[in-house]
Design brief:
Order of helices and strands: HHHEHEHEEHEHEEEEHEE
Oligomer: single chain
Structural class: alpha/beta
Mean pLDDT: 95
Radius of gyration: 18 Å
C-alpha cells in the first residue's frame, strides 16, 4: 500500500520524470478542446500575450501557440520543463519559478491555469499569494482562466483506492479527504515487476465556489463566470470542474 501521509512540500517531488508516464493520458490531443475553450473565454487575439501558469510539459501551450506566438510557460518542475522544451521546439518562452512568486508584473493580456494547479499550499495565505501573483502579472483589464476541481463533486465521487497499469508500471493510488484541513489527498506508489520505483503524494485545498470567488476577489481578480466543465455548463454540485473566468480588477 502507498504511504498515507503527505509532505507539506509534496509538489517538489510529485512532478518528477515518472509523472508523464503515470499520467500518459494527459496528452496534447486531450488538451485540444480545453485550450480552445480557454482561448474563447480569455478572448485571446492573435497578438495577445498569455502566461500558462503551471504549464507542465507544455501540452496546452502547443495549442495556445497556434493562436498567438506570445506564450510564456511557467512551472516549478525541471523534469516537466525539459519535456516542454522538446515538445515546443523553440517556440514560446519557458521559465522555472515558484507560483507563489510569479516573476512578472503587468506583462500579460491573459493568464491560464489548467488542471487543478491551485490550492497546493497548506496555508491559505500562500494560495492567496498565487492569486495575487496572477493579478500582478496581468495588464490592467487582463483576463484569467482558472481550471480548478469541484469540491462537491470530488467529495461525492472520491475513489478511495485504485490500481492501474501504464506501460510496464503498476500504479497504486489511495485517496482521502481530511476534514480538519479541508484537503483532498492522494498517495501513489509506482512499481515495476513488484519493486517500488517511487512513492509520491498530492494534496489540494478544497475551496467552495464562494470561497474561491472571495479569495480571487481579495487578490484583485473579478470572477465573471463559473463553469462546471469544458462544455461551458454552469458550475454545480454535479459538475466535475470549477472553472473561474474573469478580469483583473
Amino acid at each position: 500500500m502507498p504511504h498515507t501521509t503527505v509532505d507539506e512540500d509534496w509538489y517538489a517531488s510529485a512532478f518528477d520524470a515518472l509523472y508523464p508516464v503515470v499520467y500518459a493520458h494527459r496528452t496534447v490531443e486531450a488538451a485540444t478542446d480545453e485550450s480552445a475553450f480557454a482561448i474563447d473565454q480569455l478572448r485571446l487575439c492573435t497578438t495577445c500575450s498569455v502566461l500558462d501558469l503551471c504549464c507542465g510539459n507544455g501540452r496546452h501551450m502547443v495549442h495556445l501557440l497556434k493562436h498567438t506566438p506570445h506564450v510564456t510557460g511557467l512551472d516549478y518542475s525541471p523534469s516537466l520543463l525539459h519535456l516542454a522544451r522538446g515538445l515546443l521546439a523553440g517556440e514560446g518562452f519557458l521559465v522555472r519559478a515558484d507560483m507563489r512568486a510569479i516573476p512578472f508584473a503587468g506583462a500579460f493580456d491573459a493568464v491560464a491555469n489548467f488542471f487543478t494547479s491551485f490550492g497546493y499550499f497548506t496555508r491559505d495565505e500562500e494560495n492567496q499569494a498565487v492569486a495575487r501573483g496572477i493579478a500582478s502579472a496581468l495588464k490592467p483589464g487582463g483576463r484569467f482562466f482558472m481550471d480548478y476541481l469541484n469540491p462537491a463533486h470530488v467529495t461525492a465521487n472520491l475513489e478511495p483506492e485504485s490500481r492501474r497499469r501504464a506501460e510496464d508500471l503498476e500504479i497504486i493510488e489511495r485517496r482521502w479527504i481530511d476534514p480538519a484541513t479541508r484537503r483532498v489527498n492522494k498517495a501513489m506508489r509506482v512499481l515495476r515487476d513488484g519493486h517500488t520505483l517511487s512513492e509520491t503524494s498530492e494534496s489540494v485545498r478544497l475551496y467552495s465556489p464562494d470561497e474561491l470567488v472571495r479569495l480571487l476577489g481579495q487578490a484583485g481578480l473579478h470572477v465573471e463566470a463559473l463553469y462546471g466543465d469544458y462544455g461551458g455548463h454552469p458550475a454545480g454540485d454535479d459538475r466535475p470542474r470549477l472553472i473561474a473566468v474573469g478580469t483583473r480588477s
